[in-house]
Automatic annotation (TrEMBL):
UniProt keyword Transmembrane helix, yes or no: yes
Residue stretches making up the Cation efflux protein cytoplasmic domain: 244-320
Keyword check for Membrane: yes
Polar residues: compositionally biased ranges: 342-352
Occurrences of domain Cation efflux protein transmembrane (ranges): 46-239
SUPFAM superfamilies assigned to the protein according to its UniProt record, in alphabetical order: Cation efflux protein cytoplasmic domain-like (SSF160240), Cation efflux protein transmembrane domain-like (SSF161111)
Record lineage: Bacteria, Pseudomonadati, Spirochaetota, Spirochaetia, Spirochaetales
Keywords carried by this UniProt record: Membrane, Transmembrane, Transmembrane helix, Transport
Protein name per Swiss-Prot or TrEMBL: Cation diffusion facilitator family transporter
GO cellular component, one term: membrane
PANTHER family per UniProt: MITOCHONDRIAL METAL TRANSPORTER 1-RELATED
One GO molecular-function entry: monoatomic cation transmembrane transporter activity
């Protein structure tokens, strides 16, 4: 690697990072599109909180008036959902805070911490439903035959929660919000929970009270599965897990399509909050000037920013073709040639 080429690569990287800092400062001052996912996530969290509060009141009143202990228990579970939704709102609000001296990469992982607690609450709720099912299975005489009011409210809860699940899931996918993902699965678990209540009430009224505890045990397993899924996703984000293979392949394709990029020496990503960070080392012609190398790096940066809205920060480093960071020779076409054979009868000529 020539000294001039090395200086070109380093200078291009420094210039690129300066531009990134300027761009991010302007974006934060103007309230750019980077805050849009957070606003959508906050709106979805507020809607979830309001809906959970209404459902809690409706189920509590119907359960008491209709003589359904199962619906009263479900109402208590919904009150927990209200607290979870408030936790999501707090987590999203914290994650929107700008970077400071103590947190120079921002506060976006606060959202993953919130989703971690929500996952644990989801698992706890599933275990609670399972225990309640076992208790009813062992004591079927304790099951009270309720009126039609709790049955109607349970049916309405299933429909409402399924609508909330689909809406929240869509927003979570659009924004990349891990805590909203956890909230969506919490809505889906409530659908199963309401289904168990509905089946139990219907079974009691038809003379088959044992249906409620059996349904509760099945629902317990479904909720535990969803809770473990959210838990693992939260842990992966906190451990800087990379993006999925499809996104990685798309990133590679976009980078290689830039004129002047001869290859990719390194591509690293890590998920955080509402998006992910990208670090790439590209290979360019070693005879290029500093200005030309900088322009190519800038093109790569802009291409990733425009094609991948969830890419929150992009770092581009330029390596000269001919030698990579590990000292391996690379031809301009990106291929690694086989080693040159040296005759044992004559010493190799000195390159110096």
């Amino acid at each position: 690697m020539s000294l001039k080429s090395s200086r070109d690569g380093i200078a291009a990287e420094i210039a690129m990072k300066k531009k990134e800092r300027t761009t991010r400062q302007i974006s934060s001052k103007d309230g750019g599109s980077s805050s849009l996912p957070a606003r959508k996530a906050l709106a979805a969290a507020f809607i979830s909180t309001f809906a959970n509060a209404l459902l809690s009141i409706a189920k509590l009143v119907a359960g008491i008036m209709g003589g359904s202990a199962a619906l009263v228990s479900d109402a208590v579970n919904s009150l927990g959902d209200v607290a979870s939704s408030l936790l999501v709102i707090g987590g999203v609000a914290v994650s929107r805070k700008q970077a400071d001296r103590e947190h120079q990469y921002g506060h976006e992982k606060a959202e993953s911490i919130v989703s971690l607690f929500l996952a644990l609450a989801l698992v706890g709720g599933g275990i609670f439903i399972g225990i309640r099912g076992v208790e009813l299975l062992l004591n079927p005489e304790s099951i009270v035959i309720p009126t039609l009011l709790p049955l109607a409210v349970a049916a309405g809860t299933m429909v409402s929660k399924e609508v909330l699940y689909r809406y929240t899931k869509r927003v979570a996918k659009a924004t990349g919000s891990s805590s909203l993902e956890a909230t969506a699965w919490d809505h889906r678990s409530d659908v199963f929970s309401a289904l168990g209540v509905f089946v139990g009430i219907l079974g009691a009224r038809l003379g088959m009270p044992v249906l409620e505890p059996i349904a509760s045990l099945l629902i317990c397993l479904l909720i535990l599965k969803a809770g473990v899924h959210v838990l693992m996703e939260s842990i992966n984000v906190l451990l800087d897990a990379s993006v999925d293979e499809k996104t990685r392949a798309s990133l590679k394709s976009a980078i290689k399509s830039i004129n002047g990029v001869l290859g990719i020496d390194l591509l690293k990503t890590r998920r955080t909050g509402f998006g992910y960070y990208v670090e790439v080392e590209i290979r360019c012609d070693s005879e290029l000037s500093l200005r030309a190398a900088h322009n190519i790096a800038e093109d790569v940066h802009h291409s990733i920013e425009h094609q991948f809205p969830c890419a929150k920060h992009v770092t581009v480093h330029v390596n000269p073709a001919g030698e990579s960071v590990d000292g391996t020779f690379h031809a301009p076409d990106g291929n690694v040639p086989p080693p040159v054979a040296v005759s044992q009868n004559s010493p190799p000529s000195s390159s110096e």
